[in-house]
Design brief:
The N and C termini lie far apart (about 60 Å). The longest helix is centred in the N-terminal third of the chain and has 27 residues. It contains ten helices and no strands. α1 packs across α4, α4 runs antiparallel to α5 and α4 runs parallel beside α7. By secondary structure, the protein is an all-alpha fold. It has a domain of about 130 residues: Tetracycline Repressor, domain 2, CATH 1.10.357.10.
Length: about 190
């Protein structure tokens, strides 16, 4: 019984550390931080950080995976109660934008510059595009959307999602991520209206 409690505490502590780490990275980025800096900011030892990952690079990748896993869970929770493909696509894209609201420009720049973290982000964008593709296909099957090529529409969404997350849309239009995702949802669902 004691070991179960310590595992639960250890798992909880690990999750708390990752959450704090993600908060730090989202606010300030990570490229400029050393392991000593991170340990000091999280009020833990470097040996504690090494229980999470074997190096700073692995820690950044693990934190990125943890961030996207949590963001995906939150996005899916927000979409779960929504009925109808149009409303689901809108809720989904707005939730994705909301999940990225906390990400500073520095975090996004660091993410783009660090290949292991960028790969995690790109993988999540591909997963999101497949999710949008399925919602579009469901909408076509339900007669809510005209008969469009769902993979093309999803690829269009994925391209814009990448541009939003890389801050290209913000630079070119002035729209923040949440507003850009709302616009994408409106254009996408309006463009495939039955």
């Amino acid at each position: 019984m004691g070991s179960r409690r310590s595992v639960t505490f250890g798992t909880r502590r690990r999750g708390e550390l990752f959450d704090a780490l993600i908060g730090l990275f989202l606010a300030e980025g990570f490229a400029h931080l050393t392991l000593d800096d991170i340990a000091a900011r999280l009020r833990c030892s470097k040996s504690t950080l090494y229980t999470l990952a074997g190096s700073k690079e692995q820690l950044v990748r693990a934190a990125t995976v943890h961030f996207f896993r949590g963001a995906t869970d939150e996005v899916e929770r927000r979409v779960a109660g929504v009925r109808g493909p149009r409303a689901q696509i809108t809720a989904y894209l707005e939730a994705v934008g909301g999940a990225l609201d906390a990400a500073s420009d520095q975090f996004m720049a660091d993410l783009d510059a660090f290949a292991p973290a960028r790969e995690v982000y790109e993988q999540n964008t591909r997963i999101a595009a497949r999710r949008v593709q399925q919602m579009i296909a469901d909408g076509v099957a339900a007669g809510e959307f005209r008969d469009v090529h769902a993979a093309f529409a999803a690829d269009l969404a994925a391209t814009m999602m990448t541009r939003i997350q890389q801050r290209t849309v913000q630079v070119n239009t002035g729209l923040d991520d949440a507003a850009a995702y709302r616009e994408l949802a409106a254009i996408l669902t309006g463009g495939i209206d039955a």
